[in-house]
Amino acid sequence: MVPRCTDPSMLVRQEAIDCVRLVLCLAALYEGHMPDHGNDHACDLLQIRVKIQTEDPDELFRVTNELGKVRN
Shortest CA distance to 4 belongs to which of 67, 46, 50? Predict the structure, then answer.
């Protein structure tokens, strides 16, 4: 799913970010966290989803680096 976050299609990039966010939320539930616990990574991915709406290669590179820093 992560490689699709750099897809040439903006719609595919946004959907891929949403999928990664959902996987992290599911992993948190599996680990026993409550659904409404403060999941900072989900918030980070929402910010990345907004930033990834660009065609500028330099900005996409920065956003991809930010995505690589998100961990569960």
Answer: 67
Q: What is the pLDDT of residues 30-70, one digit of tens each?
A: 888 776 666 666 777 878 888 888 888 888 888 888 888 77
Domain enclosing residue 45, as ranges: 2-69
pTM of this structure: 0.74
Total domains present in the chain: 1
Residue with tokens 């590179």, as numbered in its chain: 61
Secondary structure (DSSP) of 2-70:
GGGGG-SSHHHHHHHHHHHHHHHHHHHHHTT--TTS--HHHHHHHHHHHHT----HHHHHHHHHHHHH-
d(CA 34, CA 54): 34
| CA pair distance 16, 38, nearest whole angstrom | 22
